[in-house]
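Milestone M4 deliverable, item 7.
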Amino acid sequence: MLLARLLLASSFAAFAWNAVAGEPEVVRLWPGTPPGPAPFVAEGVEESGSTDGRSHGGKTVLRITDVTAPEMHIYRAPEQTATGAACVVCPGGGFSILAWDMGGTEVAERLNGLGVTAAVLKYRCPTRPKAKKNPTGMWRGPAIDAQRALSILRSRADELAVDPEMIGIGGSSAGGKTAAVAAIRAGERLYEPVDGADSASCRADFAWLLYPAYLTDETGTLKPEVRPTFGVDPPPVFFAHAADDPVTCGGSVSLFLALRSARAEPELHIYASGGHAFGLRPTPTRSERWGAEWESWLVAGGWGTAAAAD
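Output delivered:
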């Protein structure tokens, strides 16, 4: 799908969109330099993209990096089947790249099929030096971008025909960590408000985490940024992970148990096989079942509609 772009400045934010039917509305998240840590991009380098030469579910993966101007691509649900729900989608990529199609636009298409408006998040990256796999704080910039996306969607709820009480977030791998931070903080902002859009809450009303990464430290303990705290009311959360994933499923299990202790409503699916980074693409492993379970969860929660998926 061609992602065309038309930029329009405003006093609140620099919004951009393409009005061609079937293409997303592209929204710049910040009116100037984004708050929080800058990505590790050499001076003068602009956004770059390439196709992954490896096959994932019979297709390659579009990889995007060098993102210094975060944005979200909004795919509206069909008017006749829209439920009023919206969801920020955070692609994975190890905080180095964004797996844009497998973890982003393909998920948006499935959400649209359930009557859910989807906003694929192009968060800042890379947020870690190439030589370091897991530096402290590499999640912070992407999580700030995710919170901003939630606030902008909620501030534009009427315009987008979205219920402000039905705006969720989800993601895979590093995008799962990004979504987890935004969900667990339950509206506690990581940055100072920058304009009127931030008067709308950055909370998530539901969340889903597909093989989320970087949730625990080397001892298996949940990291502080994804640890539910007293007095915070996390949303319902759906987890899907493969037991043979090199990104340990222990992170999903630990966060699931912590959410249970916090009296939240998590749902956990651990599949015997599947490895990592399968998305919604066909796979001969048990993990292929996750998509149907996820759809069922969205429908049961009232965010998706089975009629739209049929």
